[in-house]
Records
---
Amino acid sequence: MPKTIRAPYLNAVVPPISVSSAYYFRDTEEFRRYKAGEISGGRYGRYDNPSWLQTEAELAQLEGTEAALLFPSGMSAVANTVSALCKQGDRILYTGCAYRNLRTFFNEQMSQYGVESCAICQADIEEFNEEFKKQYDNRCRIVFVEMPSNPHMYLVDLEYIKSVIDPSKTLLIVDSTFASPINCQPTKFGADLVVHSCTKYLGGHGDLLAGCVCGSMQLIDPIRNYRNISGAVCDGFTAFLLSRSLETLGVRMEKLNRTGLTVAKALEKNPIVSRVYYTGLSKHPHASLASRYLSGHGGVIAFELGCSAEEAEKFIDRLEVPFMGTNFGSHHAMVEQCAEFTYYKLSGAERSEMGISDTLIRYTVGLHTPDVVIDDLVRSLRSISLQIQDNRRKSPVVHV
Ligand code: PLP
């Protein structure tokens, strides 16, 4: 295309995917007007991309914030956000059940830059509140909360945290990946910034990696400046895929919320299932917080089996519907035995400290109908139950 011709058909219903590494100006006068802010446009692909702008505007709208920024993964959204906002001598307080790599990032990476971090277990909310008040001081730059936590779906009381912190010194950041903006908008409860792994519910098809941070223009601007330098940018095609997925987020979450609850209730009734972690169930330890903060509970259920680790492995191997793998939020059903799959590098003591028992299973329901998922689960659980009875007949050792 000759350089004087601009891209045609900018009124397309689905906006074009922008993959350009650079943007041109007709002449020096046009560039001067661009620098003066008289005309909009891009300058270079690490700073500007119209496909990001489209998707970022949609993300901000979903979270009810002024602005949003895209990143190539959830981890890079967190790493860039925290790096942009912290300086040597600052402190980070974070929920102890936060995603494994986030904990490593805080403890091993941020510590190298003189930023201290401290984890507070959120399994017992009274203990969390007490410890939070004890640990909070005016060096605390960031309180980082993963809510609901993965996979136990533990929550915290955002309004309590907000009542303790000094807003002129401390920012409350919520990783709301497990809720999605359909089930919770943390800024309504005082969060300053919200981060997501868009790889999960927001992407929703298991075919992209992306992350985002949403918040006020004032907080997003320095993070954008940091991203311009760190170069943690996602490509135009991924931005397009994410934008396409956001169009269906509401209907997907509605279905996942319904199926998740139905499957969690069915699991709760099964005699081999010893415990179910799903905030939609009244027995979840944070059910009353859930009624304040969540409008739905999503498609991921964690549960423990009353059997041995080996029997739990067999239960997984005999399932026919889900893929065995470590992702959630897409249309695929997926299952993992957490101790074996995601937490296998940790010692038994570290796992038990985090509440990851040998038979803890994380199941994500996908867009299947509930009956398909439940029939498969019940069939596999029944076969394990028969095996347990058989083992007990053959051996005096009883697994509980
Ligand atoms: N936050 C949560 C709650 C997660 O579960 C994950 C990944 O599983 C991440 C952040 C990191 O996201 P990503 O894998 O897109 O880097």
---
Amino acid sequence: MDAKKRIFSGIQPSGELTLGSYMGAIKNWTALQHEYDCLFCIVDMHAITVRQNPADLRRRSVAQLAQYIACGLDPEKNIMFIQSHVPQHAELSWVLGCFTQFGELGRMTQFKDKSQKHADNITAGLFTYPVLMAADILLYQADLVPVGADQMQHVELCRDIANRFNYNFPDTFTIPEAFIPKMGARVMSLGAPENKMSKSEPDGCVFLMDKPEDIMRKFKRAVTDCETAVRYDVENKPGISNLLTIYCAATGKTIADAEAEFADQGYGIFKPAVGEAVVELLRPIQEEAGRLMKDKAYLEQVYQDGAQKAQYLANKTLRKVYKKVGFVPAK
Ligand code: TRP
């Protein structure tokens, strides 16, 4: 049998989707959907590891689904769902937590960062977050997990947990691999281009649904350097290099072409040109997302259908795991 490899990935609805999440993740997913058997999840259970406003979380979770679709992910082709709709994630997470060492979780750099940032609210959930992520992946026997570099350590831990479980109970989990797509653009903050663009730093961040005038303002204000040459040089010109990356991802041009295009022009021309390219890129996505947000019945049908398909697969794995660890079958 020549089954397609399976992919699982997810984004937290802890803020609005960003240009970084589009260019770095979702755009790749739209290519992967043709070759792989994909599950794309809205990981709301991960989002509550730090405080969320409930009404906002609810709205953003549905909006994120609309935006996934507007970006070109096809709900007929992929399983698209909301994590909390599939209770098996929490159930498997408990079992896997019993196969994870306290010390392993303490070494996670994201935990260290986040617990510094949220020093007044370092919860057990924040600590065990990577176990839930391992459950997300292992429940579906995923082969590949497209993630950014910042999530590599979590995928490594997931592999360790899976190998440990399989060592005790052979043939339970597929061992997944992190998958960093070649064509992914790593988009950095417009305000501090040495850092990844992040929804938690709204200053340097362009959101997928930002109004054109806000996008233009953010690009015009982007931090650059005191030279005048539009040249790709991450080391010495991180701001301009980031703008070139964004420009090329938005237009499909190569870096060399873009450098040539702006060779005789200063940043005063270049920066708004990048802004305009992004406005044009996002315009059809925003229109489609706006249209979908008015069709609540359709979105509801998509996430209900997604949850049902996900549950079917998740349940197969969970039953196997429960049997292996020695739980009495409920029926
Ligand atoms: N932790 C990921 C992030 O913050 C989101 C995530 C949760 C995820 N579960 C996942 C990504 C499973 C890939 C696979 O970016």
